[in-house]
């Protein structure tokens, strides 16, 4: 009887670990989509420009108010509205804005207008086993698609 329980444990523990890793990837993907939706809806409701800033190095996503010019790094002109991070063990593998090549270093800023538009963008999230999920956002319609 003990041997059967041990064999069952040896088989199910690796499956549960993979399932947990996949769960963290899905949770991080959903967090990114929620941040996008929140930024878009707040920009429209408040009639003000917002930015979603994604930092691939730290895994941090934050929504900022204030000036929307990418070169404006003056902390006095910016307020952080919401902050989330990807789950532990999940990396932001790539961020693309519009048709530009993937950003290599530093945070990426996605602009949201009071009219509900944003920069089209895509983000690839990767877990420690190499599994990936991509979030692609259409800037005009605002629709986020998870692939």
UniProtKB/TrEMBL annotation:
Coiled coil: none
Subcellular location: Cell inner membrane
Superkingdom: Bacteria
Gene Ontology cellular component terms for the protein in this record: plasma membrane; type II protein secretion system complex
InterPro entries from the UniProt entry: T2SS_GspH
General secretion pathway GspH domain residues: 29-138
Keyword Transmembrane: yes
Keyword Transcription carried by entry: no
Membrane association type: Single-pass membrane protein
GO biological process terms, semicolon-separated: protein secretion by the type II secretion system
UniProt entry keywords in alphabetical sequence: Cell inner membrane, Cell membrane, Membrane, Methylation, Transmembrane, Transmembrane helix
Protein name as annotated: Tfp pilus assembly protein FimT
Organism in which the protein naturally occurs: Kiritimatiella glycovorans
